[in-house]
Design a protein that fits this description.
The protein is built from eight helices and nine strands. With 261 residues, the protein is of the alpha/beta class. It has two domains: 182 residues, P-loop containing nucleotide triphosphate hydrolases (Rossmann fold, 3-Layer(aba) Sandwich); 66 residues, no CATH class. The strands form two sheets. The protein has a six-stranded mixed beta sheet, sandwiched between helices. A three-stranded antiparallel beta sheet has the order 2-1-4, covered by helices on one side.
């Protein structure tokens, strides 16, 4: 099968200075516009994979390859903590990447307005983070990542600290944006239900050392809604992922490779 990659990890390893092996021989290929989630126990290297993709940490072994459809200057990273500047308004927080890129303030206004519209925050431009709920702060963080018009979104447990109702709404919102904007998304989560609801593929990782042990295709059509969340198909996929996670905790050997041409 021909597989056109947006980004590919080949035999990637990461060992820290203290000798801790965070990742060992990770092979992963992600197609353009694909939505892929990484799940696994704490310490399995999910966040490290994202950081290596983003170039925020050096590789110890292997390569990260970019396809023609992507470039590093069109990458956005959304962290678990919204990390907003408390002294700045919503508008100024969203403007930050454009200011760092040297985009003139007048030219940035349209992009900021569009990003806030996409996350349904019109009317909050002059609000400060202290005036916002946790879900709204995360919307600002997402808007800040959208303002540069990315083609690749790396999302590191962005909804992990939110209540279930807010999390569910933001799951649906991010899916709607993905369907309309056609980003490539790599999403880290501890939540099996979230991973299955959002993703076309769920990658299961195991720890000590961090490695991939399963690649589960979620063969369910989009758009997805609450009916999918309560369907037998959804429950079956959740059970499959949960079983792989249980086996991961027992220390299964890594797959030799995934999605190799």
């Amino acid at each position: 099968m021909t597989f056109s990659s947006a980004i590919r990890l080949r035999h990637v390893g990461k060992t820290y200075a203290n000798g801790t092996v965070a990742l060992d021989d990770v092979n992963l290929a992600i197609a353009p516009t694909e939505f892929v989630s990484l799940v696994g126990p704490s310490g399995c290297g999910k966040s490290t994979v994202l950081r290596l993709m983003a170039g925020l940490s050096p590789l110890s072994n292997g390569t990260v390859e970019w396809g023609d459809a992507l470039s590093r200057d069109r990458l956005s990273f959304v962290f678990q903590d919204a990390s907003l500047m408390p002294w700045a308004t919503v508008q100024d927080n969203v403007r930050l990447p454009l200011r760092l890129a040297g985009v003139p303030k007048a030219k940035a206004e349209g992009a900021i307005a569009n990003a806030l519209k996409m996350v349904d925050l019109q009317g909050y431009e002059r609000a400060y983070p202290r005036q916002l709920s946790g879900g709204m702060k995360m919307r600002v963080s997402i808007a800040r990542s959208l303002v540069t018009q990315p083609s690749l979104m790396l999302m590191d447990e962005p909804f992990g600290a939110l209540d279930e109702m807010t999390r569910g709404r933001l799951n649906s919102d991010i899916l709607h944006l993905w369907e309309t904007q056609r980003w490539t998304v790599v999403f880290v989560t501890h939540n099996i239900y979230e991973a299955v609801y959002l993703s076309q593929r769920v990658i299961v990782m195991a720890a000590r050392p961090g490695r991939i042990i399963a690649d589960i295709a979620i063969d369910a059509p989009y758009p997805r809604n609450d009916a999918f969340r309560t369907s037998p198909l959804f429950n079956n996929y959740c059970r499959d992922v949960a079983q792989q996670l249980a086996e991961a905790s027992l220390g299964m050997p890594p797959l030799a490779d995934l999605r190799q041409p």
